[in-house]
Amino acid sequence: MKDRILSVDIFRGATILLMVLVNTPGTWSNVYAPFLHADWHGYTPTDLVFPFFLFIVGTSIAFSYKNRTVDAKAYKKIAIRALKLIALGLFLGAFIIHFPFFKNFNEIRFPGVLQRIGVVFFFAALLFINLDWKKLIWATAILLIGYWLLMTFIPVEGVASTLERAPNNLANWVDVKVFGSHNYKADYDPEGLLSTIPSIASSLLGVFTGLILTSKQEKKTKILIGLGGSLLIIGHIWDIIFPINKALWTSSFVLVTAGWANLILALIYYLTDVKKIEFGSIFRYAGANAIVIYFLSSFISKVMGQIQIGDTSLHGWLFHRIYVHDFMALETSSLLYGLSVVLFYSLVGYFLYKKKIFIKV
């Protein structure tokens, strides 16, 4: 397409390949700190990756639905796409490689990355096609402020709420009560139910960026930089009373991650769409089939982790046979394994793109 904004495609592809990198180290026992999530409060570069993807989902919503007719057909398409994403996520959580090919019901994790993408896409798209930009600002503010009030002022079974990892943390308590044994951890889920509320705001902030990019505004780069810087400042100020936390997806976390997303996207936009400098094609190829690449990487990684070779898995066997050497730190070996996986899926993205195969979920 002539009017396609290359920077968005590059940003999307880079984000999905980063998701693959941080999800597939050689060994979780030896990973460089920037490629790990923060223990609880605070954030690392890795904590930016998933919110970046939800942000770009919102940007894509602004592109795809800006001029579409709001009718039953539009609602049906939105609902079907959301259900497909949720179904793929549940499949990943339940699949095992041996008969009967699915875990016992009590062992299946209900929340997950694809499930959250599906839910967030559904609500962000519905809000976008029904509200103008001013009402969307109010909706975003209500989601963020409302979540802050819920998390800090609602007691849990008569005990004052906390933002620490504890039974009287409202988000954790809701996850345990609703999902029981179906959480990622026994006491909480990083893609839990209550924390999905502010994650919708992550996507809505991406919607605003999409509206800026498709508008007739001049100096879009400066607008994105100003927006990104403002969100960063407000988010870090809010961090004082509502700590930045990915596991809880706090409102300050939403603002800070959207701030970084705008700043990075502004740089890519300036280089590719303004200055017409050609770079990042490999990311663009991956971005064209982002969900497919994420699903394949997760599925194949899961299969490799379950195939046994001696006393280890196929994943472990390949890692130790090819990447582990006496002259190299295990963290470096682990990173090289992850980069090899990224290279493989970059080639998959390239192949699909060149063959004009675009699988829309």
From TrEMBL:
<feature type="transmembrane region" description="Helical">
    <location>
        <begin position="193"/>
        <end position="214"/>
    </location>
</feature>
<feature type="transmembrane region" description="Helical">
    <location>
        <begin position="108"/>
        <end position="129"/>
    </location>
</feature>
<keyword id="KW-0808">Transferase</keyword>
<protein>
    <submittedName>
        <fullName>Heparan-alpha-glucosaminide N-acetyltransferase</fullName>
    </submittedName>
</protein>
<feature type="transmembrane region" description="Helical">
    <location>
        <begin position="10"/>
        <end position="28"/>
    </location>
</feature>
<dbReference type="GO" id="GO:0016740">
    <property type="term" value="F:transferase activity"/>
</dbReference>
<keyword id="KW-0812">Transmembrane</keyword>
<feature type="transmembrane region" description="Helical">
    <location>
        <begin position="247"/>
        <end position="270"/>
    </location>
</feature>
<feature type="transmembrane region" description="Helical">
    <location>
        <begin position="335"/>
        <end position="353"/>
    </location>
</feature>
<feature type="transmembrane region" description="Helical">
    <location>
        <begin position="223"/>
        <end position="241"/>
    </location>
</feature>
<keyword id="KW-0472">Membrane</keyword>
<feature type="transmembrane region" description="Helical">
    <location>
        <begin position="85"/>
        <end position="102"/>
    </location>
</feature>
<keyword id="KW-1133">Transmembrane helix</keyword>
<feature type="transmembrane region" description="Helical">
    <location>
        <begin position="136"/>
        <end position="156"/>
    </location>
</feature>
<feature type="transmembrane region" description="Helical">
    <location>
        <begin position="48"/>
        <end position="65"/>
    </location>
</feature>
<feature type="transmembrane region" description="Helical">
    <location>
        <begin position="282"/>
        <end position="300"/>
    </location>
</feature>
